[in-house]
Design a protein that fits this description.
- By secondary structure, the chain is mostly helical.
- It has a single domain, classed as Hydantoin permease (Orthogonal Bundle).
- About 75% of the residues lie in helices and about 0% in strands.
- It is built from 18 helices and no strands.
- Helix 1 packs across helix 14, helix 3 packs across helix 10 and helix 5 packs across helix 16.
- The longest helix is centred in the C-terminal third of the chain and has 35 residues.
- The protein is globular and about 65 Å long.
- The N and C termini lie far apart (about 45 Å).
- Bound molecules: phenylalanine.
- The site of phenylalanine (PHE) has 15 residues, from helix 1, helix 2, helix 10 and helix 14.
- Phenylalanine binds next to helix 1, helix 2, helix 10 and helix 14.
Length: about 450
């Protein structure tokens, strides 16, 4: 086979891909979502299930997704079409690309609204609003923000515009350099926050909450959320990693880079948890406070530490940046597809997708104020508002199903010769282990979690 070339270009090096993929993976999922869903699902047992999912489902599927992308070298829809054809399989496999594009649009619609909170907090913190703040004060500042649809819309608009600007220039220019400097800075600031949490008096309690598994606190829904989060935090199952893989040079090791990305992503999430839960307990807050958790707790740290205004501003700036590098990967599959199939240029394609996502974002904005209500029908959605429904539908259902399909395609429908050639791990234990994981472990785990939730089986 002569090697295909992507019309969108290539990463300049192995490091560039690692940075871009880490930029996609590390985002609101690690710092905003991981702590609040851990708080809602009782802590340690949830964290353990999440870590196991990253290891046994996330890493093998990430390798599958990257290898599919690199072999197809196009947007996920066209990559799946090409590979299905090449492997003599049914064209229905392109559905992975289509479903992923829809999932990406739904995710970016709420992701951008939440990222808007982070942008708003950059200015809040810089203005000194949190100096000496009390827990009640921080909670009411947050409530003031989310109850005001106009402010939410303004910040959502700013963030969406930032995303469109980068994507329209092509994801490679600028991204590599920025991630190289800002990621390590985010890491250092998280360490600083953990250091602050160590002196909060409740560090041990926070650690115990995170790392002592209490399985009586974990429900079937919690297991699904933990698994869904493994997909969400690693950007898997919708084509973001596939499209980034399509820009990966042929000589780079997919296995090594996938493991590095997963480790960095997990570290950031654990550090965020270690920074936040001690503060939650030290201030008598509720771990299950929901999506506002970090916005109600971190200002307490910044409001009371030396140099807090500076560090706090920097932190929310870096959080915005982390969200930004994830957001661009959420719309890249759709943009690449428009460029390939509609012959439009990147700027136009990004703008079209950005406008659609911006409009969809209004649902999330309103779900925190004017349209705040809870669904009452039974099942996974009981007690959820519109935002929760979007979150559950995408992270807990669409991403795991997308990942399941990718694993099955790579494990059962691609020839061994193709996957072996792409992974370049030889024929030893590493390759065999991967193949076993995508053929059996990952699919069965996803299927069992779903069946359990549907009440078909009881584990
Ligand atoms: N992984 C990103 C985060 O944790 C979110 C994301 C999901 C990005 C799916 C791309 C695809 O914030």
């Amino acid at each position: 086979m002569t090697e295909r070339i992507s019309i969108h270009g290539q990463w300049s090096s192995r490091l560039a891909f690692i940075l871009a993929a880490t930029g996609s993976a590390v985002g609101l999922g690690n710092i905003w979502k991981f702590p609040y869903i851990t708080g809602e699902n009782g802590g340690g047992a949830f964290v353990l299930v999440y870590l196991l999912c990253v290891l046994f489902i996330g890493i093998p599927i990430m390798m599958a997704e990257v290898l599919i992308g690199r072999r197809g070298r196009q947007s996920p829809i066209n990559t799946m079409r090409t590979l299905a054809h090449e492997e003599h399989q049914h064209g229905i496999w392109q559905l992975i690309g289509w479903a992923g594009m829809v999932a990406g649009l739904l995710i970016i619609s709420f992701y951008s609204v939440i990222a808007g909170w982070a942008v708003a907090y950059v200015f809040r913190t810089a203005s000194g609003a949190f100096t000496g703040v009390t827990a009640d004060g921080a909670a009411s500042i947050f409530a003031g923000l989310v109850s005001d649809p106009e402010r939410l819309l303004a910040w959502h608009t700013v963030f969406m515009a930032m995303t469109v600007v980068v994507v329209s220039r092509g994801v490679r220019s600028g991204l590599e350099k920025a991630v190289k400097i800002l990621m390590p800075m985010l890491f250092v600031l998280l360490l600083l926050l953990v250091g602050y949490a160590m002196n909060s008096g409740k560090f041990a309690e926070g650690l115990a909450f995170l790392f002592t598994p209490d399985f009586s606190a974990l429900t079937a829904g919690g297991v699904l959320t933990a698994m869904g989060h493994a997909f969400f935090t690693l950007s898997l199952g919708m084509g973001a990693i596939m499209v980034y893989g399509s820009y990966l040079p042929k000589n780079v090791s997919i296995a090594k880079t996938s493991v590095i990305v997963a480790i960095m992503d997990t570290l950031v999430a654990l550090l965020a948890g270690m920074a936040i839960f001690p503060l939650v307990f030290a201030n008598g807050l509720e771990p299950a406070a929901g999506p506002g958790l970090i916005f109600k707790t971190l200002p307490l740290a910044f409001g009371h530490m030396a140099g807090g205004t500076l560090f706090g501003t920097l932190f929310f700036l870096l959080l915005t940046f982390a969200a930004w590098t994830s957001a661009i990967s959420l719309i890249e599959p759709a943009v690449a597809w428009l460029v390939e199939n509609r012959g439009v240029d990147r700027a136009k394609a990004s703008t079209v997708i950005g406008v659609i996502a911006w409009l969809l974002g209004i649902v999330t904005i309103m779900s925190f104020n004017s349209w705040a209500f809870e669904f009452t029908f039974a099942g996974e959605f009981k007690g959820s508002g519109l935002f929760d429904v979007l979150d559950i539908l995408t992270a807990n259902i669409m991403l795991p199903l997308g990942g399941l399909a990718m694993a099955i395609f790579a494990g059962w429908y691609m020839s061994e010769r193709s996957t072996k050639d792409e992974l370049n791990l030889g024929d030893g234990l590493l390759y065999r282990g991967w193949r076993f994981a995508v053929r059996f472990i990952a699919p069965l785990a996803v299927i069992i979690v779903f069946l359990q939730l549907l009440g078909v089986i009881k584990v």
